[in-house]
Amino acid sequence: MLLFKRKHPIKSFLKKHTFTNQTISDLRIIFLIACFFLPFIKIIGQPAAQKLKISPLTGDFYIYTTYNIYESNPVPANGMYLVTNNGIVLFDSPWDTTQFQPLLDSIQYKHKHPVTLCIATHWHSDKTAGLEYYRQLGIKTYTTELTDEWSKKNGKPRAEFLITKDTVFNVGNYTFETYYPGQAHTADNIVLWFAREKILYGGCLIKGADAENLGFLGDANKAEYESTLKRVKKKYRNPNYIIISHSDWNNINSLNHSIKMAKKLKRKTESKQ
């Protein structure tokens, strides 16, 4: 058996080439420059974080998603818009305040129609942040009277028009209704129902089918959460879509899962009393 000694490639290269002191000095400088700029090249090469995402739902319905930071993590916030023959209806406003105008611009570019109406589903900033901005642009903004009370109390943007009771809206060729099922995520949370398409827009009241908990409960009614969700389920049976704020909206089991979590929350709350 013949054994061959493996040659070291770097040593072989150095033996074949003669380097002057100036060449070695130049190589050192190039190496140092490369080490300095390499991290920046890596950063530049990375794609920028997406701030606005628009996804088709069904027909003239679209889901838009913006992002914000909660507990040091980026959290998506879903809203929805509807294209009618009498303008576009926006359901909730972007959570990211830098996306108020980009959302309008994207909608105008895509559909060649302006946003004419915006409805917020409760007083938290992930729903109401853009109300004043949109009002100043001439967009009709709506919340319930209860949401307006809480927005005023907490210094949040307020709508121009107030909904005094569960209301049916007729906008162009579409009809939808608002419904206040009771206290849960907040004291004022409402849902929206589109009967023809069987779309339930649940906002922050309903959590994702894969959620581990009911999210932020600082303004929640823990004792009533389960009952409120059950009222929604009883009133709007067999929806084709359930749109939620902070999780994947493709899973139709989100309402049932939220009811189960609310039941556990109620038991936990009662056990501490």
Termini Cα gap: 84 Å
The secondary-structure element order is HHEEEEHEHHEHEEEEEHEH
Q: List low-confidence stretches.
A: 1-11, 37-48
Radius of gyration: 27 Å
Oligomer: single chain
Strand order of the largest sheet: 1-2-3-4-5-6-7
- Counting DSSP E segments of at least 2 residues, the number of strands comes to 12
The percent of residues in helical segments reads 25-40%
Class per helix and strand makeup: alpha/beta
Biggest β-sheet strands, sense, barrel? 7 strands, mixed
Count of all domains:
1
Proportion of residues in extended strands: 25-35%
Number of helices: 8
CATH class: Alpha Beta
Query: What overall geometry do the principal axes of the alpha carbons give?
Result: globular
Q: Could you report the average pLDDT, rounded to the nearest whole number?
A: 87
CATH architecture: 4-Layer Sandwich
Can you tell me the CATH superfamily? Ribonuclease Z/Hydroxyacylglutathione hydrolase-like
CATH topology: Metallo-beta-lactamase, Chain A
Keywords summarizing the entry:
273 residues, alpha/beta, Metallo-beta-lactamase, Chain A, five-stranded mixed sheet
Description:
The structure is a single chain. The chain contains 8 helices and 12 strands. It has one domain (52-271): Ribonuclease Z/Hydroxyacylglutathione hydrolase-like (Metallo-beta-lactamase, Chain A, 4-Layer Sandwich). Helix 7 packs antiparallel against helix 8 (254-271). The radius of gyration is 27 Å and the shape is globular. The protein is an alpha/beta fold and 273 residues long. It has helices spanning 9-16, 21-45, 100-111, 125-128, 131-136, 145-153, 225-235, 254-271; strands spanning 52-58, 61-70, 73-84, 87-91, 115-119, 140-144, 161-163, 168-171, 174-179, 191-194, 199-203, 241-244. The strands form 2 sheets. Strands 1-2-3-4-5-6-7 form a 7-stranded mixed sheet. A 5-stranded mixed sheet has the order 8-9-10-11-12, with no helix packed on it.
